[in-house]
């Protein structure tokens, strides 16, 4: 098999295209396709959120790094973005929590949402609510029973 490799944006766009294809199939009568449209769209959204965060700092999408920022935010009673900026001003090495990990675990979508939501000037809370609703439906699809109209 030929090597198939996508960066985070390529992977996100691939999932978006697949989601739109499945949505079209669903609109054409294959109701089952809507399930896969949702799964692929949720994957797209998660990757886009992670990409946005990686533009702040490429290591911030990793759980061990995010935990440092989150702990600082809680300790200082500040937003996640402010905690990141404080750590950056202190010249914290954001690569240190993932040293020695060849494939570090990335943050879940809820952490990504929490980070972008802490930037009230640029992220709409209504959009966050919609993403969470889709995430909940996705979780039902993947881990339990589900129903959608």
The count of DSSP E runs of length 2 or more, i.e. the number of strands, is 0
Q: Describe the biggest sheet?
A: none
Whole-number count of domains: 1
| Helix residue percentage | 55-70%
**Oligomer designation:** single chain
Number of helices: 6
The rounded distance between the terminal residues' Cα atoms is 39 Å
Look at the structure and give the mean pLDDT: 94
Strand content: under 5%
Which stretches are poorly predicted, pLDDT < 50 over at least 5 residues?
A: none
Radius of gyration: 18 Å
Silhouette: globular
Classify the secondary structure makeup into a structural class: mainly alpha
Order of helices and strands: HHHHHH
Question: Which terms summarize this structure?
Answer:
149 residues; mainly alpha; 6 helices; 0% strand; HEPN domain-containing protein
Descriptive report:
This protein has 149 residues and is an all-alpha fold. The chain has one domain. Helices cover 64% and strands 0% of the residues. The chain is built from 6 helices and no strands. The protein has helices at 8-27, 33-56, 63-76, 80-89, 109-117, 125-143. The model has no long low-confidence stretch (mean pLDDT 94). This is HEPN domain-containing protein.
């Amino acid at each position: 098999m030929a090597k198939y490799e996508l960066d985070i944006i390529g992977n996100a766009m691939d999932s978006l295209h697949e989601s739109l294809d499945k949505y079209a199939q669903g609109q054409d009568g294959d109701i089952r396709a809507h399930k896969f449209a949702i799964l692929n769209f949720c994957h797209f959204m998660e990757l886009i959120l992670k990409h946005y965060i990686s533009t702040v700092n490429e290591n911030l999408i990793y759980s061990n790094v995010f935990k440092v920022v989150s702990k600082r935010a809680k300790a200082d009673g500040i937003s996640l973005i402010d905690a990141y900026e404080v750590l950056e001003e202190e010249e914290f090495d954001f690569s240190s929590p993932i040293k020695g990990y060849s494939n570090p675990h990335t943050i879940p979508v809820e952490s990504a949402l929490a980070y972008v939501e802490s930037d009230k000037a640029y992220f709409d809370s209504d959009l966050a609510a919609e993403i969470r609703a889709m995430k909940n439906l996705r979780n039902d699809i993947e881990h339990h029973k589900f129903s959608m109209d």
